[in-house]
Design brief:
The protein is an alpha+beta fold and 88 residues long. It has one domain. It has helices at 59-69, 71-78, and strands at residues 5-12, 18-25, 30-36, 46-47. A 4-stranded antiparallel β-sheet has the order 1-2-3-4. A hairpin with a 5-residue loop joins strand 1 and strand 2 (18-25). The relative contact order is 0.18.
Length: 88
Amino acid sequence: MAEHHLVLDSIETPDGDRCVDIFRRDDGTFGFEAYRRDIEDPSGWFPVGRHRFSIFDSKAGARAAAKIQVSWLSEIFLSPPLNETPVR
């Protein structure tokens, strides 16, 4: 039987060519996967790691591991939100 994942968060780069999905499996465990897409290729998103096979007990654990293992993801979380002005 195929395993199903419920995507809880999908974090995309501003230019739309990469994303990370944080998901919950049917068995209650959590995981994540990084994807890329080529805008000129209509095939869609392609996994770029084998991260989806790692198992975490919580969404927070999967998200923390994703920030460590996917280099561009930590840059997004360090940037101030678009609607806020940085403090000087």
